[in-house]
């Protein structure tokens, strides 16, 4: 025989799981303080400029 389940409870459990997943995504996207975001952005800019500084040719010359 099949297990008997309460559809209302199953629906609520599914909603809880979806809400928890969305909360985890929001914590990643919006959870960092502004100081950490600006620091990460500055570090990324420095890395890009260093990487571009090692090019043998200029960015506009593709010959």
CA-to-CA gap between the ends? 73 Å
What number of structural domains do the residues give?
1
Succession of helices and strands: HH
Uncertain segments are none
Q: Please tell me how large the radius of gyration is.
A: 24 Å
In helices, the fraction of residues equals 55-70%
What summary fits the major beta sheet?
none
Instruction: Give average pLDDT, whole number.
Output: 89
Class by SSE composition: mainly alpha
Q: Hey, roughly how much beta strand do the residues contain?
A: under 5%
Number of strands: 0
The backbone outline, from C-alpha atoms, is: elongated
Number of helices: 2
Protein name: DUF4169 domain-containing protein
Pfam families: DUF4169
Organism: Methylobacterium isbiliense
Structure description:
InterPro entries: DUF4169 (IPR025227). This is DUF4169 domain-containing protein. The chain has about 60 residues and is mostly helical. It has one domain (about 5-55). It is built from two helices and no strands. The longest helix has 24 residues, at about 5-30. It is elongated and about 70 Å long. The mean pLDDT is about 90.
